[in-house]
Specification:
This protein is of the alpha/beta class. It is built from nine helices and 19 strands. Helices cover 23% and strands 32% of the residues. GO terms for molecular function: ATP binding; carbamoyl-phosphate synthase (glutamine-hydrolyzing) activity; glutaminase activity. Its EC number is 6.3.5.5. It comes from Anoxybacillus pushchinoensis.
């Protein structure tokens, strides 16, 4: 069945609807450049309500397994590919890409000229789009606050390590918890709006502010609580969490033209003077000049465009990264970030003991 991708700038791309669907689907259209990792992308809460375009021409060739999910279900609004493989050629494959998306009623559109579509996004920026069975459609998208839609409403604990981390769930990826557990941590996941008083009752060694979807400034009412928490405990902040820390200290953020979404983004580490390959998924970035009168200094810089990829507090044990050190998908170059975080917590515990 014919389907059409209508962009806000007036461009339309034709394709084939692979899953059963009626009506229109709207969302912000963005692209991901990784050759693999589509299962992790589909289930990453940071993609909530976005229409994802995969730039690699063949998607689905190793199917969908039961273990590489980043959350319990897909969060993307729709999927656009050039070619969708019908069969998953991997011994762990439990579903084909089409079967998995059909199970969750996520539209899959194939045979789209994804190269031309991505050029439009690069030239005009990420923008609202509508997928429709009609050749014409009105492109409009209501402003949404996605974090409450993806954050947990319960308190859950994972692992049994020596160090206790409270993870603020703004839309966290399962791999972040796994990485912490591999570094000897017990992880308690709490809702995004958890107060300092509740955190104190949990008595952690440190806190982690997770990744998540949307504009960080939508969470401005919670910044005083964020500041109170991070001033009290050693902190690791990832992606959206990194942006919230910067905002809490008086920095500013802005939207990138088309964002960084892929598994091969080079990042320069100012501290070690090394370049790391990173996995990334963000549409907003901290403005470097806005940090001038804050206690934060730039630790990581994107090699391609010079944007801020991480900051560190000048005196407190607070480390923030814009990229995803847990990877999944992508390279594991920056797993050392979790080791640094554990070292910060151990040092703080030692100071507490001898205080």
């Amino acid at each position: 069945m014919e389907a059409y991708v209508h962009l806000q700038n007036g461009k339309t791309f034709a394709g084939k609807l692979e899953t059963a669907w009626t009506g229109d689907v709207s969302g912000e259209v963005v692209f991901f450049t990784g050759m693999t990792g589509y299962q992790e992308v589909l289930t990453d809460p940071s993609y909530k309500n976005q229409i994802i375009v995969f730039t690699y021409p063949l998607i689905g060739n190793y199917g969908v397994n039961e273990v590489d999910f980043e959350s319990k279900h897909p969060h993307v609004k729709a999927v656009i590919v050039y070619e969708a493989e019908e069969t998953g050629y991997h011994y762990e494959a439990a579903y084909s890409l089409k079967q998995y998306l059909q199970k969750w009623n996520v539209p899959l559109v194939s045979h789209v000229d994804t190269r031309a579509l991505v050029k439009q996004i690069r030239e005009h920026g990420a923008m609202p789009a509508v997928i429709s069975l009609r050749e014409t459609a009105v492109v409009q998208m209501e402003e949404q606050h996605p974090v409450p839609l993806v954050s947990t409403s319960d308190v859950e604990t994972y692992g049994s390590g020596d160090m206790h981390v409270v993870l603020f769930d703004f839309g966290y990826k399962k791999s972040i918890v796994h990485s912490l557990m591999e570094h000897g941590c017990r992880v308690t996941v709490v809702p995004y709006n958890t107060t300092l008083q509740t955190v104190e009752q949990l008595d952690p060694d440190g806190v982690l502010l997770s990744n998540g979807p949307g504009d960080p400034k939508q969470l401005s009412p919670y910044l005083p609580n964020v500041l109170a928490v991070i001033e009290r405990y050693p902190t690791l902040a990832i992606c959206l969490g990194h942006q919230l820390v910067s905002l809490a200290y008086g920095g500013d953020t802005e939207k990138l033209k088309f964002g960084h979404r892929g598994a091969n983004q080079p990042v320069y580490d100012v501290k070690t003077k090394r370049v790391w390959m990173t996995s990334q998924n963000h549409g907003y970035v901290v403005k470097a000049e806005s940090l001038a009168h804050t206690p934060l200094s730039v630790r990581f810089v994107n090699v391609n465009d010079g944007s801020v990829e991480g900051v560190a507090h000048e005196t407190k044990p607070i480390l923030c990264v814009q990229y995803h050190p847990e990877a999944h998908p992508g390279p594991n170059d920056t797993q050392f970030i979790f080791a640094e975080f554990v070292d910060m917590m151990k040092a703080a515990r030692k100071e507490k003991v001898y205080a």
